[in-house]
TrEMBL record, chain A:
GO terms for cellular component: proteasome complex. Residues 241-312 form the WCX domain. Residues 10-123 form the PafC HTH domain. The keyword Plastid does not apply. It comes from Actinoplanes italicus. It holds the Pfam family WCX. Residues 144-210 form the WYL domain. Keywords: Proteasome. It comes from the Bacteria. The keyword Cytoplasm does not apply. This is Proteasome accessory factor C.
From TrEMBL, chain B:
The lineage of its organism: Bacteria, Bacillati, Actinomycetota, Actinomycetes, Micromonosporales. This is Proteasome accessory factor B. Coiled coil: none annotated. Keywords: Proteasome, Signal. Pfam families: WCX, WYL. GO terms for cellular component: proteasome complex. InterPro entries: CBASS_pafABC_assoc_protein (IPR051534), WCX_dom (IPR057727), WYL_dom (IPR026881). Residues 1-25 form the signal peptide.
Amino acid sequence: MSTQRTPSADRLGRLLNLVPYLLARPGILISEAAADLGVTDKQLREDLELLWVCGLPGYGPGDLIDMAIDGDHVTISHDAGMDKPLRLNPDEALALVVALRMLAETPGIGTRDGIERALAKIENAAGDLADAPVAVRLPANQKKLAAIRAAVDSGHALRLTYYTSARDETTDRVVDPMRMLMVGGFNYLEAWCRRAEATRLFRIDRIDGFTELTEPSAPPVGAVPHDVSGGVFHPGPELPLVTLRVGRGGRWITEYYPVEQVLKDSPEWLVTMRVTDLGWAQRFLAGQGRDVTVIGPPELLDRIRAQAATALDQYAAPHALGADSGAGR
Amino acid sequence: MSRTRTERLVNLVICLLSTRRFLTAAQIAATVPGYEHDPSDPRDHEAFQRKFERDKAELRELGVPLETGTASIFDQEPGYRIAQREYALPDILLEPDEAAAVGIAARLWQHAGLAAAASSGLAKLRAAGVEVDPQATLGVEPVVTVDPSFGPLTSAARDRRAVTFKYRVPEVDEPSTRRLEPWGVVCWRGRWYVVGHDRDRAATRCFRLSRIVGDVRATGRPDAFEPPVGADLISHVARSSGPIARNGRAVVTVRPGRAAGLRRLAASVVPGPDGDRLTINFGDVDWLASRIAGYGPDVRADGPPELREAVIQHLKELIARHETPAVTA
């Protein structure tokens, strides 16, 4: 965050932590402690060697930190007054408190109770710092989410009725659930899709129906979860490139969708973006108002023009105004 | 930091923790290994002072609460000590489910700085004896990303310092400079906002963090303002996105098997001679008209008349806009 400390400063923090850590775990395996603390065995042994020559003024036997290293096990026998870890600093308190609030707010999470108790205890330990000026609200269709989560927890395969926005179709498919996640305000079910024979992320709000099957969920060994740290949609170079000219009122597109390039030479920006499907692009772009004009590819331009013309023809025909056209408010 | 320096700092912490009296720099130099120097040699003494200043800064940076005071009213020189009560993390006992929640919370951050802060915070909890199961899951994994201005804004809100930043709204070409008294940061539907008192507009304002350009600068003194008591930050952000009243009732005809996205919005679907007849409740006629226009000849708006007119108008404009082959800028 604001303070990116150097590795050596991290070492000092780690050393101050190490004595109480070991004190709480007499006889712990060095390799286990190292793994727990995120350092190598060698680093941990070097840390222990350094601590060995530190201690209380006087620095004689009885003053220095003392420990028994028995092969691969270590036990602190004198802590020189370093029996407690340093309290949380503001960044640590913020990172933990906000993450717990986030968890507690995450729709569909299992044990909200445990999270809230943990939050209260961490806030207590953080003292004045607990009052993190951060609020979280993650709304969702709780009922649907809870139902899908329960089905996922049961360990069974699911039959989904799913709306695919890219192709604008609703289809049925059988999936083997892997996990549920929440990214950028949306909930997802990650599952092995037997139809696509690939791992897929299904947006919960687009699951229009589901049935729990009796057979167990069995994602194949090769089913790899997505890396969603940079968002859900990563357009690859194989996807069609679309170019638009957008006026002020259409610039929001560059905030909502990953775009390849934006030229801001004039008030009308020239935007290039990759789309999963030209059909989607057509529906989406033809649905935009006067602030969005498609520049290319020519195929898309032709499609939009031709489809709009045919659509318009429907209203010229006399039968278009049906008897109940006035179906009003 | 060299090994000698790390060693010296560990000894300094142990020494200051063990003393109840304030120790002067000279007393510390005479006690803690690594500060040996000749006080009568000005150059040597100056080197010691610089070293000691750096060390104090390092400890404060780490969050070690270094107290300054004098041992008695006769002492001229300031002394130092560390109060155990201020230094030590308060005792914290977490039940297994609480510890699991904290462990999961610490993994949420995708932001490098916050992830580091969370894991060093977790390391302190481990040192306090908390056992964290790294395998624990909660059924739903939230993936939390934040904008770079998150850190500076939360710090400023915590310190109650005013901030200034450049803010770019897509519709406006040049970012404008804003001056804000930040009350707090809010996560709403997967996006981050800062809420506070806008000094230039003299009113409460929300700003989306993703629209902040460049650095956030804290200005003026801490405790410069008082956020309103019991302010519900989320309500300021959520105000503009309440539930939409769907008072309009549209009738549209859809080709069989097409426009799945529109069918999902329908209150009822009745098969008819020239396609399926959908009834859709809507709030904003222009919004629905654009959706319908996006579907081209697959969908025909039958009523009410203002919807029909809006679709026709939209389609006409769409054709006009794409009539002449656009020239790439």
